[in-house]
Each structure stands twice: as structure tokens, then as C-alpha cells.
Amino acid sequence: MSDKYLQFANSKIGKPILSMLGLPKPPRLTREDQDNPHQLSDNLLCGISTAALYGTQIKQSLEATDLIFVDDNAQTCNLVFDASGVRSTEQASELYQFFHNHLSKLPRCGRVVIIGQQPNNISSTEHAIAQRGLVGFVKSIAKEIGRKGATANLIYLNGFGHKGLAAPLRFLLSAGCAYTNGQIINVTTPVTGVSSSYNWQQPLKGQSIVVTGAARGIGLAMSQVLARDGARVIGVDVPMAQEQLEKAMAEINGVALALDITAEDAPQKLIDCCTQYSKKLQGIVHNAGITRDKMLSRMSDEQWQLLVDINIGSVQRINQAILATDMLDQGGRIVGVASISGIAGNLGQSNYAYSKSAVIGMVDSMASSCVDRGITINAVAPGFIETKMTAAIPFATRQFGRRLCSLSQGGLPQDVAEVVGFFLSPQASGVNGNTVRVCGQNLMGA
Ligand code: NAD
Q1: Which range is least confidently modeled, 189-193, 203-207, 349-353, 423-427?
Q2: Ligand 1: residues whose CB is within 6 Å?
Q3: Are 335 and 424 spatial neighbours (Cβ–Cβ below 8 Å)?
Q4: Would you list the DSSP string of 183-245?
Q5: What are phi and psi of 61, to 5 degrees?
Q6: Ligand 1 centroid vs 107 CA: distance in angstroms?
Q7: What is the pLDDT of residues 291-337, one digit of tens each?
């Protein structure tokens, strides 16, 4: 459903009227060009704190891009600051100084990335405190620049060098990060080796990836984005949606599998279908999900059971069956789809919030056992995304839901799909155990 307010706010008549009334003016966001994605070609200014760990590696991580590294005198530029060297709260003045001097140079839909060290793994208390402060800083900057359609995010590294840095840095500087704002991506030692020759334009070339709930909405956008990036998508959806699913998969040379994921034999049918095409599976995205909103006292058993079974029960059964084989070993990816409701809770959504919180629990609890097999597991937590699910929300609540974030608008299914594509890419093998919100920095649970 189109956001008429967003269109009005960006029209010649709308702009001055909204300014006069002091109402929010949601900016138009720049997104990946579907015909020519993953291009990085803006000016970039890098700041480096004293004794920073990654400063010299930022350039290496951004090789094979058309970025122009500029100096302090540049008029407009995106900003990366390596704050890993900030070892005390006094030294945080370097961070302040860099952004104080340069934040106004950020272009419309510009990007800010701060690089720090994961505080939990720092032995010095003073250093850990100084690094933890980066979270509040980046989230506040994200709020300041959101009205320009710009985003600010933080990468916490674990001290192993630039190989794990390249994928998150490139993603957070890209147009794919249009609706990912105020987030922290934790990067650990890559679970598999990171190849130095890498296809940044078609990162998923030759990969087989399952997407559930692929007939429409976010799952359809994921299928399209993953196919754009070179993957063969095995799209799954309920038999009732078979026609829609087959049409969608035909358009991207994918495979359609009409299957209710809650069926007892669904895990085996899924594995059988995948093995017809390849012995290995590079990824599975558990996107299928439903809502059945009701206040808890009026919620029927069926509304609870069915939802929990689709949103998390069947996900667990499918993971279990796949992990009983070696299909995903050495490079595979599992991606869950949570929700900000699973982080903040939501009125009338106790069933949904339970299931989506459980998806986050799945990521947290499985991350370390996955590492041993060279697999990563991560989740996205979408906020208000423009789909049939959110089009069903009553008008006033829908308007309110859209404006509740720093970017003052709902996201598009493509925005969630781009983050999923980043998780799935071979170079992101140091990104494990993360739940990244794709919510434009929604206030819910922030
Ligand atoms: P949607 O209703 O448009 O699409 C969901 C798809 O899942 C449908 O095609 C449906 O047929 C399929 N599906 C449902 N039950 C299934 C089953 N048993 N077996 C196989 N397929 C099944 O929803 P959407 O808005 O695209 O949401 C996709 C995911 O994103 C869901 O997990 C949802 O909870 C999550 N999410 C959406 C939003 C949002 O704002 N739209 C926000 C947060 C999270």
C-alpha cells in the first residue's frame, strides 16, 4: 500500500505546508538499483581514533569500489570513524570532535559507520566502558540524521582484523542499508575462511537458498533480491498460494515448492526437493509467518497454537531435520525472521511476540553450535514494513506506525531482503548470532 503522506511530503505543495504545520516530513529513501546493485561510489571521509586497530584496514576492506577517499576539506561525504582506539571516556572527545566537525557534510541518504570493539571481550574496565558508550552515541546520531534519510550504524569487532570487516562495512555504506538505522552488528572470527577473491556484484552466485513464505510480501522480495544476487531460490509456500508461488519463481528461474511448513512430513519433503538440485544447500530463510491478533483473554486456543507452530515450531523442526544432514555444513546460513514485536511486545500480540522473541532465542542459543560446523545463524527483526500484513491495520494506527521511526515512514519488503542477502553472503562468515532490526529505528523497544 502506498504511503500518501510520504508522497505529499515530497511534493511541491506538501513540503511548505508540512513545514508550516511543524509536521514530520519523511524523506524519500535511496535504495539499491535492481539492475546495477552493490555500487559504492560516493565520497568517503575516514576518521581514526588514536591507536585505533582497524584504521589502515578500512581502505583494504573497500577495495573494488569506486569510493573516493576525501580529506577534511570535502564539502559532502559519508563518514566512517574507527573508534576502536577509544580507551577512556576522556578519549571519546576524538569521536565527538570528528562528528562535530563533519556530520553536517553528510549528503541526503548518506551513511555513517562507526567501528568499535565488542566491550564484553575487553579486559580493561575503562576501555570497555568507553567502547560501550558508542551504542548510545550511534543511536543518537541516527536520530539526528534520519530526517535526511541518512543512517548511522555501529560495527563491533572482536580484534581479528579486516577480513571480517569488509562485508558489514560495505553493507552499512550501501543503498541496501536504507531502512537499517541505529543498529549494532557484532562480528566475530569468521566461521569459515574468507576468500580474498570475491564477487561483490553477485555475492550469491551458484548458491541454492530456500525461502519460506515466498509467494508474496517480504518473502517474495527476498526471493527477487537473492536471485538478483545470483542465487537459485527454492521458494516454499502453502498449497493455496501455489499459482502465485509458481508465477513468482518462474520469473526468477527459481523452484516452487507448494508445502505447508507445519505438515508432519514438511521437513523431509523440503530436504528431498533441495537434494534434487544439489547435495549442498547454502542457506535457508525462515520467513513464513502469520499474525492472529487478539487480547490474551479473548484469544482462542487455535489462535495461539497455529501461530506458534507456523512462526517457530515448524522452524525448529525444519532446522533439526536439515542439521541432521551435512547439507549446510562449511559455509551454510540460517536466517530467521523475528519482529520488533518480539523485542518490545505489542498490545494484542502476545502470541506473535512470543513466537518472534523465540526466533531471537533460537539465534542466540544456536549460534555457538553452528560455528563448529561452519554455519552462521542470524535474524532480521522488521519494524513496520509495507505489506498485506500491515495494510490490514486500521488507518489511524497504520499512519501512526509508519511515523514512529527516525525515518518517519514504513520500510519496503526490499529493505528486509537486502539485510538477509548480506547475512547470506559468503563474505559475512564473521556475522553470527545477530538479530538486526530493519525498522528505520522504530521507537518500539529501542
Ligand atoms: P505475508 O502475510 O504477506 O506473507 C507471509 C507468507 O507466508 C504468505 O505467502 C503465506 O502464505 C506464507 N505462509 C503462512 N503460513 C505458511 C505455512 N504454514 N507454510 C508455508 N507458508 C506459509 O507477510 P509478510 O508481511 O510478508 O511477513 C513475512 C515475515 O515477516 C513474517 O514472518 C512476519 O511475521 C515478518 N514480519 C513482517 C512485518 C511487516 O511489517 N510486514 C513486520 C515484522 C515481521
Answers
A1: 189-193
A2: 212-213, 215-219, 236-238, 241, 260-262, 287-290, 310, 337, 339, 382, 384-385, 387-390
A3: yes
A4: -EEEB-S-SSPPPSS--SSSTTTT-EEEEES-SSHHHHHHHHHHHHTTPEEEEEE-GGGHHHH
A5: -65, -25
A6: 35
A7: 999 999 999 999 999 999 999 999 999 999 999 999 999 999 999 99
Structural domains in the chain, sorted by start: 1-30 (no CATH), 32-187 (3.40.50.720), 208-438 (3.40.50.720)
Query: pLDDT tens digit string along 339-392?
Result: 999 999 999 999 999 999 999 999 999 999 999 999 999 999 999 999 987 888
The grid coordinates listed for 111 are: 551513511
Encoded amino acid at 104, one letter = S
pTM of model > 0.90: yes
Alpha carbons 439 and 160: distance in angstroms, whole number = 30
Read off the amino acid at residue 197: S
Predicted confidence band at 159 (pLDDT cuts at 50, 70, 90)?
low
CA 189/CA 430 separation, integer angstroms: 5
CA pair distance 188, 431, nearest whole angstrom: 6
Residue 219's alpha-carbon distances to 44, 207, 293, in angstroms, are 33, 17, 21
